[in-house]
């Protein structure tokens, strides 16, 4: 794999903690960034079992995923925890990918906008040039379902408006990724959506052929942002 394969598209993979060092060695000089799927909410100290932002940086990570829906739902990563993790990432010089998204019940109740923007506001977000936001409707993760082009454009539009209102011109430069059963069959249509700057790829990243094809479709669509394969 060479940089010319994907041109201007920034590609990254986020393996589990235990595989980070091995993947880093395997990547070598390949134009693929390394990221982590989570980080501890604390800095230095006696926090047995936690993986700090500084540790990830020392391992060569560029990115770290914060607030993934599974962390929020299964491990109690509420707004205060997400805010602390986001801050730890910024302090360590990592580029955080902040995940936001609604459940099926919340979408059916018509509260998607309130939920998504509420998660952004509760994160204590401060502007940084390295910030990335990923919209991942919970009901579309690992289900084989994907939001329609219209649904994605609406939510990404709300996020962009929120960023512009809060941070002005700088908010227009923040990358907004879509994550939710992105696969080769629907990638081109999703990347053609307004305010979609890339994808947070889950299940499809477990297939090298599928992930590479998604990246190539991004290059064809001139999506000049970040792709992250979060292997489970």
- Spatial order of the strands forming the largest sheet: 6-5-4-3-2-1-8-7
Q: Count the helices. How many? A: 10
The overall pLDDT average reads 89
N-end to C-end Cα span? 23 Å
Would you write up a description of this structure?
The protein has 232 residues and is α/β, with parallel strands linked by helices. The protein contains 10 helices and 8 strands. An 8-stranded parallel beta sheet has the order 6-5-4-3-2-1-8-7. β7, α10 and β8 form a beta-alpha-beta unit. α7 runs parallel beside α8. The protein is globular, with a radius of gyration of 17 Å. The protein starts with a helix and ends with a strand.
Provide a quick synopsis of the model.
This protein is an alpha/beta fold and 232 residues long. 40% of the residues lie in helices and 15% in strands. It contains ten helices and eight strands.
Spell out the blueprint of helices and strands.
Layout: H1 3-6, E1 10-13, H2 20-27, E2 32-36, H3 53-58, E3 63-66, H4 69-74, H5 79-91, E4 95-100, H6 104-108, H7 112-122, E5 132-135, H8 149-167, E6 175-178, H9 184-191, E7 199-201, H10 208-220, E8 226-229
Parallel strand pairs: 1-2, 1-8, 2-3, 3-4, 4-5, 5-6, 7-8
Structural key phrases:
single chain, 232 residues, alpha/beta, eight-stranded parallel β-sheet, 8 strands, 40% helix
């Amino acid at each position: 794999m060479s940089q010319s394969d994907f041109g201007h598209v920034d590609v990254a993979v986020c393996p589990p903690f235990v595989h980070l060092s091995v993947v880093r060695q395997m990547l070598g000089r390949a134009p693929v960034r390394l990221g982590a799927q989570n980080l501890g909410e604390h800095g230095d100290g006696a926090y047995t079992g936690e993986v700090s932002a500084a540790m990830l940086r020392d391992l060569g990570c560029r990115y770290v995923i914060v607030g993934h829906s599974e962390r929020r739902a299964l491990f109690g990563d509420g707004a205060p925890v997400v805010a602390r993790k986001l801050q730890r990432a910024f302090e360590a010089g990592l580029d955080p990918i902040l995940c936001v998204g609604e459940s099926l019940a919340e979408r059916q109740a018509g509260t998607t906008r309130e939920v998504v923007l509420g998660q952004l506001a509760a994160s204590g977000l401060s502007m940084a040039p390295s910030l990335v936001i990923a919209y991942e409707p919970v009901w579309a993760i690992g289900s084989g379902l994907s939001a329609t082009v219209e649904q994605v454009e609406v939510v990404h539009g709300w996020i962009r408006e929120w960023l512009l209102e809060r941070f002005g011109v700088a908010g227009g430069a923040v990358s907004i990724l879509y994550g939710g059963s992105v696969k080769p069959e629907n990638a081109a249509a999703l990347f053609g959506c307004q305010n979609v700057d890339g994808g947070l790829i889950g299940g499809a990243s477990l297939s090298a052929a599928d992930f590479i094809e998604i990246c190539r479709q991004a290059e064809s669509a001139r999506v000049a942002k970040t792709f992250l394969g979060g292997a489970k």
